[in-house]
Input
Amino acid sequence: MSKPKVYITRNLPDEIIEPYKGDLDIEMWPEKEVPVDRHILLEHARTSEGLLTMLTDSVDKELLQQSENLSIVANMAVGYDNVDVVRARKKNVAVSNTPDVLTETTADLTFCLLMATARRLVEANQYIKDNQWKNWSPLMLAGSDIHGKTIGIVGMGRIGEAVAKRAKGFGMKVLYHNRSRKKEVEENLGAIYTAFDSLLEQADYVVCLTPLTDETRHMFDASAFKKMKTEAFFINVSRGGTMDEQALYRAITDNEIAGAGLDVFEEEPILSNHPLLALPEVICLPHIGSATKETRYKMMTLSLDNLVRHFQGKPLLTPVT
Ligand code: NAP
Output
């Protein structure tokens, strides 16, 4: 029997792909760093039965309409805002993502970013390397405390909960906001359910961990930043579209908030002349929330497992429903 044709939109390691070659007829975009050209993706989607996509690939109306053979898109990310899931469902194309395997790794990065922002680690590193460290002084590179402060987690899902655990370890008070309450997080971690505006008013660290949806797009806008404390920091590890970057820039330069730690941006990669990058109060990372070798390998394997199961007629391990 012929194997189902699968196109992988980035060059993944041989050691990961090799075990799947018995079940899948795999072709891959040859580049490791550069996303697949749109016309190549469309061409392969037209002839493939499965796609293994990255968050940089847009699986949209155009792609889905022209891809008559396609029956599954395995997206190598927990977020799936790059996939038109409603249209995929209408076209009977299954969609899977990679939840759970990246939760702890992304929570580690979120807390790292919070700490680096609060304690000005990037500035401090540069200070030495630029040969500016000539003396000790009482307020040299003085940052903000983390222990004993209040964290406000917007999006208390899998990653939000893992961040709350870390915050508890640092003796922080944990507030959270979701559309629905999570009683087990309240009981187990003492997290307090708080209305969005009230969380903004109380938190010293506002951490965004929601998916990007029509509802969360620009949830952090000028009015949200205005409600935050002047000494508070905004940390975003969800998707850049949840924040209005111009409003964030203004909030920081007008001293409405103290600074920000950002792993995600409205346009990725962010341009090097973007005004946010010039602010010392802003720490920026190139979307590396889940970027450890262990976790990325698990995400690749989970995506491939979903593809194999789909073509074997078995339920997906992690379907997007
Ligand atoms: P999850 O378990 O689905 O958690 C998302 C949480 O957001 C849920 O608790 C949900 O609760 C809440 N939420 C959804 N819409 C909301 C709204 N309008 N207002 C307030 N809360 C809302 O997902 P996860 O695994 O924790 O991942 C969260 C997101 O992190 C992903 O979607 C992805 O975009 C991002 N992420 C980024 C990286 C990175 O590298 N930077 C890595 C992994 C994940 P309710 O439904 O009750 O509202």
In short: Residues 5-101+293-311 form a domain with the Rossmann fold fold (CATH 3.40.50.720). The chain has two domains: 5-101+293-311, 103-284. The first helix runs from residue 14 to 17. The chain has a mean pLDDT of 98.
